[in-house]
Amino acid sequence: MKISSGWEQSIYVLLILSRLPEKKALNSLALSERLDVSHSYLKKIIKTLVNEGLVKSSPGKSGGFSLATPLDQIDFYKIFIAIEGRGRVFASQQLLAKVLNIDESQVENCAVSQAMDSIENSLKSTMSSIKLDSMLKQLEGTDDFTDLDNWIKAHV
Fold this sequence. Notes:
By secondary structure, this protein is mainly alpha-helical. Helix content is about 55%, strand content about 5%.
């Protein structure tokens, strides 16, 4: 499994948007330039975040994007399913039946499938436990956001 770059980009988009003054928005071009990522790809990512209700879109000349959901209600897993989809990370192909040369209906327990289910449950649990508000607080404790805040003021 490989998680797309869009997932990380989404995290940073949400963190940046959380620093906006109330009733202000940033456009996708400014965000893509700040992150130094593809504008067309970031627009798709942001549209997905809008569809999931994490970001809101404001039309017009001074429009753009702003946070729709408070950071304390957004965890890494919500972002993951928004970007990577709601399907299972691992879907068994029932290969044990083929390995043993038996009918799939005869397979009751597959250790490989159970292990993969356990990994998926651990991934979901771990991602769900990481909230963006605590992530931002951790970053603010170790990093200087002055340049970002000044950049936001210049672009809203």
